Structures are given as C-alpha cells and as structure tokens.
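Problem 12. The chain below contains 50 residues. Write out its predicted structure in token notation.
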Amino acid sequence: MTDDAQREAEQQRLQLEKKRERYVWYYLAYFLFGIHIVAFVMIYAVLHAK
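Solution.
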C-alpha cells in the first residue's frame, strides 16, 4: 500500500471507532436512565403499598 492509502485507511478506521464509541455512550446513557425510572417506580410501589 502506498503512504496515502495507509493514511486514508487509518482515517476511516478512526472515524468508525469514534462513531462506535458515540453509540456506546448513548447505550450507557439510556441504560442508566432506564435503571432510574425502574428504581423510582419501585420506590413509589413500596411507599404506596397497603
């Protein structure tokens, strides 16, 4: 491979890695948000149980 081709391949790899990392952060944010919703519902259920 030529030097330009290597540099282009490295740029594409870095771009893909950055995109995947962003998806991981989104997944983590939704997961943590969901856990809090479940926790609040459980607290509500315990406090309002007869």
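Discussion. The chain is about 90% helix and 0% strand. Students who got a different answer should revisit the alignment rule from Section 12.3.
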